[in-house]
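We emphasize that the prediction below concerns an isolated chain of 646 residues; any contacts that depend on oligomerization or on bound cofactors are therefore not represented. The input was used exactly as deposited, without trimming of termini.
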Amino acid sequence: MPRTFQATIALIVTLNVLAVLTIINVWQTNSAEKNVIALRARVDQVQQSNSQILAQLASGVAVNVQAGGQGAGAGSGDAYAAALNEPGNLLVAATDQLIFPDAKQGGTLRRIMGSDPKGFNWVTESSVDVSELQGYVHNTFARADFNNPDAYVPELAYKITANEDYTEYVIHLRKGIYWHVPNVDFSKGHFDWLREPRELKAEDAVFFFELMKNSQVEAGSIKSYYDDLKGAEVIDDYTFRVTWKRSVAQSKIFTIGLYPMPKWLFSRDEHGEELPAETLGLAFNNHWSAATPIGTGPYKFERYEAGVRLVLQRNDKYFGERPPIDRLEYQIVRDPETQFIRLRANEVDFMGNIPAPRYKSDIVDGTAASPFKNGQLKHEVIDVFAYYYLGWNADKPMFADKRVRWAMTHALNRQGIIDNVYHGLGEIQTGPYYYQHPAIDPSIEAIPFDLAKAAKLLDEAGWIDTNGDGIRDKMIDGQRVDFKFTLTAYNRPEVRSQLSIYREDLRKIGIMMQPDPVEWPLMQRRMDEKEFDAFTGGWGLSWFNDPYQLWHSSQADVPKGSNRVGFRNTEADKIIEDLRTTFDAEERITKLRALHRIIHADQPYTFFYAPKAVVAWQPKMQNMVFQKTRPQTYSLPWYIDESAAR
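Result of the prediction step, given as a token string:
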């Protein structure tokens, strides 16, 4: 390996010399300004090719120098590649190719964000937007290979070992990886301590695990995965150990697939003074630096203008595969129709989900003049690894009885809404996993739309119109209560349409539902604080299923937890706990299906549909590949070719 690496470097140097001499000769022969620009571009391409080759060596990917390579490496590439062959290393060489070798460099990708992020601290915020941004700004110790999600390839770590029962992991970090410099106002003298870049160290990794053990840290959406964490310790600057109390199936994913947190930043106030250990968790929840997030990743945070845009700039000192596109600009546009107008006006380059009515009018029924028919815009329909649902607050007397929740599901015309509101862009969901996942029990059929059955169940549950006013009522704690409730919903046109249909059908069986469409930050706050009767929700999913966060009874009362509907079931708890110590894939499927049956019988959610998205882009966007799992519209492989612009 060392000889191969040295030979490769020698060849790169030779190619560089020849390339630069050729460029200089062209420059001397042609003195026009356009040739100076071409010179700079060619030098950039040479440097990019070199950095890509080094990164492939570092990650263990075979390199064909004549064909070009991928990425930029930190530390000793040959040593890191050799480590992949060492006995016990859980990491393998990458088989995927994120960056197209001949991708054109530069440009700004203009895309859409549907609302302002509630915050940027990925530990305390659980929204999909924050998760997506984190994937650009930061790295995990290892990532799943896109061709084989069960295999892990190096990112921040080059070697990870574990004992036989996976209760102890030792992680070896690459050297020479640096945190982004925070984007703060350095004219304020008290930020001078942040000017110099700092190297990623083992203490940053251990700091994350310490946060998970800190009772003050408000991270209800992920803390449950670390209930069995015993602790973590620094071995040296680039090595640390993570220990679990017992052998649990999720330990591998939640040890090596997480993002470290910069201890030197989050343990200090904005003047650089150490925060008291006694209140560190409280300070972390609202840390001053969260407004300017940093990481080690291919893009760094540039600026955020509330209600306008969020911009990420390519990290040209990135240790890994540098993406071709210079800048990612997220335009914050709440209204989907306005988003679509900007796409058609060439004011944005990519839209992650065009409105369903526009899909029908411009694509399905589009004429030859439609930009999707004449080549001015490209599109693709993709499955989204997610599902939508209606959540019923079981802690409210109105929805405490499962017969009522079944009635609410019978009253929702799911297929009719999918066909008429979403124009076929979805599949009915029956349970808590992706509808095509093997954990879905195939014996469970979707609960049909049946208002007569819904009315019968409500009668059985004691909800009857006793005074003839057309609204069902019931005596609760000595008071007559009308069946009236508010359904908190994300403020989108399609959601408003589906709730209008639902409201009319509920009226037919004596229920008054008031839709309350709100913007995302307010909706998330209401869900976090359980200030709702019912709400429209959705979950982005992963292939590995650990139902603890959403469905274990212990999570029903966790602040900002994900079991917002108050689902409590001892039989389900037993299965969920058993799953954490079940490693065999077939046995896990059996238990997950049993859990599916329990949840189906209880109907804590009215499972609605698994969506399909119509993604659309300008023709200049090239290599538009989409992953099967999240993040599905990850732009690292994409590039911009202005010669292909409309």
